[in-house]
């Protein structure tokens, strides 16, 4: 069994490295609406789902023709918008540049992590912890309560994030084939821990089971190593969709916000 201790100096050193290497390049060159080249379907359910599959790109003047029970989420310059059928919707007319989306996105991307690694303070996209449940502050942080496929842009900067950091905690990282266990620990108030890359190597297709001391059940994570870090929001969303990294896609949608109010039915 490997044991990895969590200490402030290591967390600070890691966070500085992460800030320089990952957050400076990953996800967006900027956080303005110009970062999104066009509209992209990122979630679709209902009878028209085959016509609007996740990953499909639409022009700014495209129209959605939806049937009853259809629900399509579009990622565009103003964030995410949800269209519900039946009805015909013009993406151009329903677009609305919302500063709140840019603010949430900026907060989501620019959480450097160095101060949080020292103090454990995390705020959810501009909302105080007292006002909302803790939210994963970065698209590339691995939530220890979520299983499934997880896209990794840079294995050397992978972070473990725990939503409940009111006390100290530990987690076992179990390699399913040989049963080797690597133990990590968090100090009280610190939600972040760098992945123990030396003890638990990462490669495409690698699978580990996470057993947290303050988590109701264990989860299995299957890692997808991206060939290169996405350089903008379109690329990030497309990579998550193509590789079925659902928990990260859900986080992206939640962080950008639900723009249902922007959807306006046409004739």
- Counted by DSSP, the helix tally is 6
Biggest sheet, strands in spatial order? Answer: 1-12-11-14-15-9
Secondary-structure element string: EHEEEEEEHHHEEEEEEEEHHE
Rg, rounded, reads: 19 Å
Structural class, by secondary structure, is alpha+beta
Strand residue content: 25-35%
- Give the termini distance in whole angstroms: 65 Å
Name the shape in a single word.
elongated
Helix content: 10-25%
Biggest sheet: strands, sense, closure? 6 strands, mixed
Nutshell version of this structure?
The protein has 267 residues and is an alpha+beta fold. It has helices at residues 8-23, 91-94, 99-109, 114-119, 233-242, 246-256; strands at residues 2-4, 39-45, 57-58, 63-66, 71-76, 79-84, 87-90, 141-143, 148-152, 159-161, 169-174, 181-186, 192-194, 207-212, 219-225, 265-266. Helix content is 22%, strand content 27%.
